[in-house]
Amino acid sequence: EAFDVVVVGSCMTDLVSQAPRLPKAGETIHGHKFFIGFGGKGANQCIQAARMGAKTAMVCKVGKDFFGENYIQNFKDNGVSTDFVGQTADSATGAASIIVNDAGENAIVIVAGANLLLGGEDLRRALPALSSAKVLVCQLEISPDTSLQALRQAHENNVKTIFNPAPAIPDLDPDFYRASDVFCCNESEAELLTGAAVASIEDAGQAGQELLRRGCSSVIITLGSRGCVVLSAQEPSSPSHHVPTKPVTTVDTTGAGDSFIGALAFYMAHFPTMSLEEMARRANQVAGVSVQTIGTQTSYPSKKDLPTDLF
Ligand code: RIB
Ligand code: NA
Predict the structure, then answer these.
(1) Which protein residue's CA is at the shortest distance from atom 6 of ligand 1?
(2) Residue 218: beta bridge partners?
(3) What does the pLDDT look like over 241-293, one tens digit per residue?
(4) For the residues 36-46, what does the mean pLDDT come to?
(5) 167: confidence class by pLDDT, cuts 50, 70, 90
(6) 255 Cα–ligand 1 center, Å
């Protein structure tokens, strides 16, 4: 039985403090709420795809510890296959310290831990699932070599690939572009990768053109409340398409980009002939739901919570 969406990526335990603002260096401030949640960009994207109704598998590594055990249960609770979830005694489950301010903005430090031990051997075991999936999704919270190897394997097997270069690294291996059917990043990642400021929708279109020139089939740059821009190599002469979003009341934007990508993966798997712009429009709406409640995965909607016209 083939999977709709396979994610090769990270799991993190999110340790979240809500405070009026982000502290300055050397400063202690009072926050008003603390909670622990399931996070990590890879797992977040996988969970969102699963909640939309995709048949999903996660390829990842957690520690042989309390957080790792809990994370495996979380995948099971969400119907994600754990056949390729490894546990290691050599490192702790990844952790993310997150501070969310009253504007819903965040600052995050990740300690990837066990995520960095996901490697070639794990990919070999997952290869049958990876090479027969409809869509593969990768990010950069595991070793970049592992992500690139997974993307290449999928690409060679005609599996559609989504690559989310997050958190961005300045000297990204050029092969990442060539192995990406959809290269999807946010404005700050686009800035770091292209070296040009991305302040406006126009800037985003230009950054997108540059990323397209590097060899990916299509590019999406997400712009928070301003939606996203979509570009395709099939229509290189046409300008980028801006896909706006409806305004919502923002409580916590943490993981909104992951909600978008998880939803996008679902659409690519279930509606392969739908235009990328339409998929992006719908994924914007899904991510728009996630920003209206606190937390990452806790705020991700399921199919039953969403308008039927999104399916
Ligand atoms: O993208 C949001 C995620 O980034 C959080 O869940 C945190 O774990 C970090 O990886
Ligand atoms: Na949220």
Answers:
(1) 39
(2) 182, 232
(3) 999 999 999 988 999 999 999 999 999 999 999 999 999 999 999 999 999 99
(4) 98
(5) very high
(6) 6
Distance CA 224, CA 221 (A): 10
- Residue type for 71, please? Y
ipTM computed for the complex: 0.98
16 token code pair: 């979240």
pTM beyond 0.90: the answer is: yes
Dist. CA 41 → ligand 1 center (Å): 5
Q: Calculate helix-pair angle for 276-290, 41-52, nearest 10 degrees.
A: 100
Alpha-carbon distance 293 to 45, whole Å? 17
> Over 80: is that where the pLDDT of 236 sits?
no
Q: Which atom of ligand 1 is nearest to the CA of 94?
A: 8
How far apart (Å, rounded) are the C-alpha atoms in residues 154 and 131? 5
65 lines ligand 1 (CB under 6 A): no
